[in-house]
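Quick one:
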Amino acid sequence: MSEQLKYIVDNLNQKPYNKSYNLISFDSLNPLTLLQILNDVFAEINPQHKLDIREEDPESMVVRMLTFLRVLKYKPTIGADNPNAFRQGLVQGEKPVVYPILQWLFQNMDDLKKRAYLARYLVRIDIPPDQIADQDISELNEGYGELMEQFKEFHKELERLKSSGYSTGEIKKDIVNMEDEREQLIKRVDRVKKKIESVKNHEKMITAARNLRIAREQETDLRQQMIDQKNQLLHAEQKYQRQQQQLKNTRSQGVGTTGSDLVRKLEEECKINSYLCQDKIPKDIEAKQKAIGDIQRVIDEPAMGQSDLDQLNQQIRQLSDEINKLIEKRMVRNDPIDDKLSLFRQQASIIVGKKDAAAEELREVMEELNAKEGDLQSKREALKQSEGSEVIKGDEFKRYVNKLRSKSTVYKKKRQELTELRAEYGVLSRSEEILKGREGQLNDHLSQLEVQKGVSGFHDTQEELEKVSSVKSGLDEQKGKSLDEISDMVRKLNSTIVEKKSSLAPIIKELRPMRQKCQEVTAEYDERKAIYENLAANLESNMSKLEQEVKALRDELAHDESRYFYLNSMTKLLKIQENRIEVEMKSYTSSDPNDKKKSYREQYTKKIQEQENLGKSLREKQKSVRENHGPSIKQMKMWNDLTTLLECKRECLKKASSQSKVPSSVQNGEDDVLIL
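Output:
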């Protein structure tokens, strides 16, 4: 995308656009400015598109751009399968639609200018079928086609002359040089003949020289034939090697197959080919012939008026009423036997449709296979001709593919394990955070219970006891203290412990049911949490499904909206065409000559007559020019000779006057005298 954008900006900054964009400023342009830039590039190809799109109706602008792109034979890379999406993107000035168009235009500017120039003269005029049935219009259309063919031939001749690299001045100069060389060669031949005549046995020597020249020419031809034979031998060897490789591949593919398999395969191919030849292709031919017959019948019919159209509409309404009545009778009858048969008919029609679709798909696949085989063969030949690296053969390629598959399987397995470990790590981290939070909550709750029961500090005391016990163990390790001090300290500690235990005994009794209750509450909390997590997971899955449905509905809504806008615009265009047809019919059937003059038929007839008169006058002028060309050239040559003669006389007079001793006044007077 960046390379594409850079290429577009570089071309816009050059002549004849002379813009001053950079990548950021150009990428930030609004859709209207982007469409104006696209229209400016169109105007560079064809000056008829040089206008301001703000003053043009958006619908007509899009129709004009799409028509011009169709004339230039542009194939969209985005939206190729959906023309409505491409049209909508062009209307809205979307960058993914406009950028490829600009890049394609800049890459093929010269060819597109030529194509746009030729389109002005080679695009046929759309004539309605009812008017083309007229003999005069048909003859004019044929003459128009012949003129188009003549224009094609003249244009090809002009391109050939332009590409030849010769001009009239160069050709004249070459002719003069060739005439000089011819004269020099004639003089040289004469001198050589004079020299040879003085030599003895010159005729034999000339014959020997001629034979030597012929022998050398024959030797050159033989060398060229030998080179051609070597090339043919090389091509034959390459073809032999290809056939050997194809035979080897066929044998390798046939390894493991039996005769029954081959017969079964051939029978399937025969069935498919027989179905295509006996059912599919005849039906297609019959459908094509029927369509051609309908078109030919429509072409052969004369022009229809409004009364004929009303009569046809009346027949259509009558037939529709009869069909509806027959359908109602069938629904009232409701014969179960017919219902069963209709079910079987429906199934049979579905099977036939599937069979036709499979045959069509088979045909497309076979065409694609043939194209791929042709590409493969051409690439193999190109590879054999070039001196590249060796290509992996069939068995080596299979081993290479199996190795890649095994590595891919190991990679997927390791990646899955890594994903599971990451998920488990997340769960453990979350569990650690939850346990730490619970620990803080339990410590706070325990301190509150101690305050309520009047034994605040019990937990701290217990911790102090643990610290004391640790201190005691440390003191035991010390050898510097006496045994009496240790025993006193032990007694004091024991008495303190007994006092604390006696004071904490009732509190501990009350704390035991609280611990049990805490365990029950914790179990209930875990159970409720598991239920909550299951519900949350179900809701998330349902929400994702709903989001996907909403997205699909939004896409469908956008598609329907674009389809609605397209159909609305097509309806408007059809209404405009219908109004134009009504006006044309009124003006055509009207008795007023002024209205007839306004009709398209009269206008086209008038223009065609004017063009015919112009063509006749031009042909007469061309005829007169051809007749007077020779005398005019002769007269022009005579005038040139006369001018040269007069110039020579004038120069001679000047030279004579300068050499004589006549006064200047007399000399000046004689300059005006013309002497022949």
